[in-house]
Amino acid sequence: MTTTTTPRTTGHAHTAGSGVSFARVLRSEWIKLRSLRSTAWCFAVIVVLLIGFAALGAALSSAFVGTGSTPSQQQSIAVTIITFGSPFAQLVAAVLGALVITGEYGTGMVRSTFTAVPRRTAALVAKVVLVGTSTFVVSLVALAIALLVATPLLAGQDVDVDLGDGRLWASVVGAAAAIAFTAMIAFGLGAIIRNGAGGIAAAIGVVFVLPIIFGIAQGLIGKAWIYTLNEFTPPQASARLYDYPLDGTSMITMPAVDGAVVLEPWQALLVLIGWVVVLFTVALALVKRRDV
């Protein structure tokens, strides 16, 4: 007589991959993110750019401050100088966001990630959350240091910074958020393209080339609809988060055109959230359909 033995399926084998909690996925992705040399280098460059440009602008602020400037004008100039490095930091954040996902495709590590998390959604959500959160924290700390460094330098140039101004702190937080959103948008583009060079090129194109194109178009055509369309692009919406307009005049964005839409900071925030959600949704759909 032969006895047929049915192999027992252990709970661990039955739930492998599908039973991984989001907290564990988040912890795993955090370990990967902070162990990458590119992450450390990008964050270091972001810190240097934000503090360095603020210090340089503050030291040369006499070129921007006219005689008889009002306290409001001085405050607007101070905020502009403190956040002066934000567009350059966004370029670095775009590279970081794209590299986080395309680097895994390049090395093949993405196979291990999706084997451990076969449904893939949790892995991508963890990645984009960590990229956005860590970039925001690093940028906010750097901008706070930039404010501390620039304030005495500005005082030496007869520019008094009102640290009790809520709009100043809103601009500082907005600049950090703008950098973080840029990283998340670049992550979405990188997940869609999957190629390192292509993802970085697309991200830099959105951050750097798009404003140039709209600037040229605005100068040549000058229609209100062009300005309105530009308001809904990531670079312009990002600028609205930390803009400090004075009497409707901004020092970091193009002059408004009659009949054109000008976003309020909360509206710009919604626009950037929309960009992140749309790109992430497309990326997630493609990741779920592809073999790797």
Provide the descriptors you would attach to this structure in a database record.
disordered N terminus, mainly alpha, single chain
Give an overview of the whole structure.
- The chain is mainly alpha-helical.
- It has one domain (21-289).
- The chain has twelve helices and no strands.
- The chain has helices at residues 11-14, 22-35, 37-59, 71-82, 86-107, 109-116, 121-156, 166-193, 196-220, 224-231, 234-242, 265-289.
- The longest helix has 36 residues, at 121-156.
- Residues 1-17 have low confidence and may be disordered.
- The ordered string of helix (H) and strand (E) elements is HHHHHHHHHHHH
Which range best describes the helical content: under 10%, 10-25%, 25-40%, 40-55%, 55-70% or over 70%?
over 70%
Instruction: Note the total helix count.
Output: 12
**Global mean pLDDT:** 86
Return Rg in Å.
23 Å
Q: Which parts are unreliable, with pLDDT below 50 for 5 consecutive residues or more?
A: 1-17
The count of β-strands is 0
Beta-sheet strand percentage? Answer: under 5%
Described by the principal axes of the CA atoms, the overall outline is: globular
Which structural class is indicated by helix and strand composition? mainly alpha
Q: How many domain regions? A: 1
How widely separated are the two ends?
A: 47 Å
Largest sheet: none
